[in-house]
Amino acid sequence: MLTEIKANKEFSNPKLEINNKLTILEHLSEKPVVKEQKETVVDEFQKYDKTLRTLTYRVLLEKFNDKYDTLLEEQKDILKELITSIDNTPRLKEFYNSKVNEIKESLTELNSKVTDKVTKIKIEEVIKMLPTLDKTAKVKDDDLTNLLQYYDLIQEVKNVQVQA
Fold first, then answer.
1. Using alpha carbons only, what angle is made at residue 99 by residues 71 and 164, rounded to the nearest 5 degrees?
2. Residue-wise pLDDT tens digits, 15-43
3. CB 107 within 8 Å of CB 126
4. Which of the residues 31, 78, 94, 151 has an alpha carbon 20 to 30 A from that of 71?
5. Contacts from 11-16 at CB under 8 Å and sequence distance 24+?
6. Which burial class, exposed, middle or buried, applies to 107 when counting CB atoms under 10 A from its CB (0-12, 13-18, 19+)?
7. pLDDT digit string (tens) for 125-164?
């Protein structure tokens, strides 16, 4: 029917064309339902013997360390605090606010050494943008990502100041 509608140059019923396309799409995208329950990774991991679990953990840890080896010490501290305080939101919020204040101080100090007017203005705007969280706010992943990026910014400004 769809080929007839396309071949026919005269006006056709759009509702009929859409219904036919939907029928074909439903038929093509239908997947067979598998009723087996899949084991979760954690359940499977718990079934391993102790030596295999230790080895798996060590490999996972080494890959994690290799991936994040290039981070600055401050960024590593942020990740460490995130991992240890993921369920303790007041502690994580306090940590976040302390890091924001630390970043503001560092940027203010670096800004006093910057000679380029445009860079000075940009750093001042970044300092104004740095938000501290109030008592009701929650620390989100984006907030922590921003902290990591602010430390990259500090490092970049330091590198530029050393080269200048």
1. 60
2. 777 777 777 766 677 755 444 445 577 77
3. yes
4. 94
5. none
6. buried
7. 999 989 888 888 888 888 889 999 999 999 998 888 755 5
Query: Can you tell me which residue has the tokens 């919020």?
Result: 93
Residue 35 CA to residue 2 CA, distance in Å, equals 35
Q: 42-47 long-range contacts, Cβ below 8 Å, gap at least 24?
A: none
DSSP string for 89-147? HHHHHHHHHHHHHHHHHHHHHHHHH---HHHHHHHHHHHHH-PPP-TT----HHHHHHH
Q: Of 69, 82, 164, 80, which is closest to residue 119 (Cα–Cα)?
A: 164
Is residue 133 within 8 Å of 93, Cβ to Cβ? Answer: yes
* Residue 110: both structure tokens together: 């670096």
Q: What gap in Å lies between CA 131 and CA 2, rounded to an integer?
A: 57
Residue 96 near residue 144 (C-beta atoms within 8 A): yes
Contact 79, 71 (CB under 8 A): yes
